[in-house]
Amino acid sequence: MAKITYKDENGKVVEIPTDPDKSIHEMLEAASIDYPFSCLAGACSSCKIKIHRGKDKLELDKFGTPMIPVEDDEFLSCVCGITPEVLSDDSVVIELERSDDV
């Protein structure tokens, strides 16, 4: 199974459960991680998150079209998700970290 880790602003690393039917933001919420959000439609930058590893394993517009530009090492967690193929791949590791901008 794919592994997604999240490092919070205090440096604590948490593994979050993966679900191809949920956005990255929803997966963070399901893991009781309080991550900022506002529109949940890709139109603001409230849920911007930094990625250190595995961006090529994410579908950046799975739940909507991002409407604002972000840096190459960031994405909008509300519209981004993983594919079912990634979920079953034990070699996939996705490393996320709270963006400096939120």
Topology:
Blueprint lengths: L2 E5 L5 E4 L7 H7 L17 E6 L4 E2 L14 E3 L4 E2 L1 H4 L5 E6 L4
Parallel strand pairs: 1-7
Antiparallel strand pairs: 1-2, 3-5, 3-7, 4-6
Short description, anyone?
With 102 residues, the protein is mostly beta strands.
Cα distance spanning the termini:
29 Å
**CATH level-1 class:** Alpha Beta
Number of DSSP-assigned strands: 7
Q: Give Rg in angstroms.
A: 12 Å
Indicate the structural class.
mainly beta
CATH superfamily: Beta-grasp domain
Order the strands across the largest sheet as they lie in space. Answer: 2-1-7-3-5
Helix content: 10-25%
Under the CATH scheme, which architecture would be assigned? Answer: Roll
Per DSSP, what share of the residues sits in E-state strands of 2 or more residues? Answer: 25-35%
Q: What count of helical segments does DSSP give?
A: 2
Largest sheet: 5 strands, mixed
Which topology does CATH recognise?
A: Ubiquitin-like (UB roll)
The structural domain count equals 1
What pattern of helices and strands is seen along the backbone? Answer: EEHEEEEHE
Mean pLDDT across residues: 91
User: How would the global form be characterised?
Assistant: globular
Low-pLDDT segments:
none
